[in-house]
Amino acid sequence: MAITKVKSLKGEISVPGDKSISHRGVMFGAISKGTTELTGFLDGADCRSTISCFKAMGIDINQNGDHVVIHGNGLHGLKAPSSMLDVGNSGTTTRLISGILAGQPFISSLNGDESIQRRPMGRIITPLSEMGAYIKSLKDNGCTPLEIGGQSLHSIHYNSPVASAQVKSCVLLAGLYADGITSVTEPVISRNHTELMLSGFGANIKSEGLTATIVGNPTLNGQKIAVPGDISSAAYFIVAGLICENSDLLIKNVNTNPTRAGIIKVAQAMGGNIELLNERIVSGEPVADIHVSTSNLHGCEVKGDIIPALIDEIPVIAVMAACAEGQTIIKDAAELKVKESNRIATVTENLANMGCDIISTDDGMIINGGKPLHGTNIKTYLDHRIAMSFAIAGLVADGETTFDNEACCQISYPDFFETIKNYTNKNKRKNLLSSKFLPLLYYSNTRFLKSVYPPISFVGKENIPKRYPTKTSKVNSIFRISSIEINTFPSQE
Ligand code: S3P
Which of 219, 175, 224 lies closest to 195, judged by CA? Predict the structure, then answer.
């Protein structure tokens, strides 16, 4: 899909379910007694990988889109898989499941795609080995494929060198299978979904400052969980609403857990019009609707303790910085190098190709914003967050922004490009409706319209209104006209 500049972006939007919470719901449900029901589940490739791994270990899981029912077999109810577990592209599946596999009486192995095979697993091999686990990188390179399990575990206190919820969760999950109390201290607090959700399932788990503590061998019981929208997916529309002209967006039902919501603070620090509405707690997690509108942004520093709370949003924050006046410095974010792609390199390369003044540093990037962006072919490196962040850049860039791969969005936001297409067309249509062409649309018939106004094409016969609306059916007319797709929008004068 080619993305072009939008004149306006208005309306309400809901984004898919939170990826971190969806993964955890499946995993914790699988090792609990009874039924766990997830609504609002993220039906994306990563979370499907988690489902298939637990199915391969004998767990009965029924998925119908965003509704998932897991029939758990209890803490000791997993069966040895008959073949290697496939974790796909998912770092969360890999690292969290490894904590669970470490505590099993059987040995299993896991592997994923090319990107997963490059990601560091030494960070979980070290603490799990300290707990007495058998865990081996089969290629001896600290990456997958891994072989894990078959040993009994003992509790440890682990001082993690990285602020990583995946490492913390891995150790805490292994701690379920160890006698005594296992604890993890992180340098900076990372997302705490494991702590919040496991407590709901009945684990004795506590957080104090930078340390999370869990007591081994609990009885976990199935839960009903309403998964909120993912702030990492909402982030694309937060930034779009702030940087596109004439915009006003309400992004509904988003997880605003403070360990995740760093982007809101950064948007505020950059002068963005952003507010949280209807704040509430759903299934133990803070949730709100996020309202954003066109803003005059200025650069800021993004560094220190806030980094883990926005680590996945840095690519789209960089796009926001490119559209802000002045300098933005992002630092303390070396973790970006070991995500689905090296995001310091992939963000810098693509933003520079769009005309932005940006340099990469060892732990982040420096962006001198305010230069006009122009469309280009985005090199995604098959990284979903790179594709989606640069689709947002395309909404303010001159010319066309295209992608070497769009399918990578399947990982966390399968409908992303479709949604962008619908929103931008809807908003183009709104412009058209409020323009001088409105009377033409009201009184013309299909053929006449096509002949005098070639940029309009009709999508699918079933969408073509039989009769064109008259003045007396104004509301209807807007509905009907919305089935017209505008391929090219002429300059608005
Ligand atoms: C995640 C933790 C983060 C994040 C990832 C999801 C999780 O990774 O980047 O997308 O669900 O625990 P790290 O723990 O490696 O920082």
Answer: 175
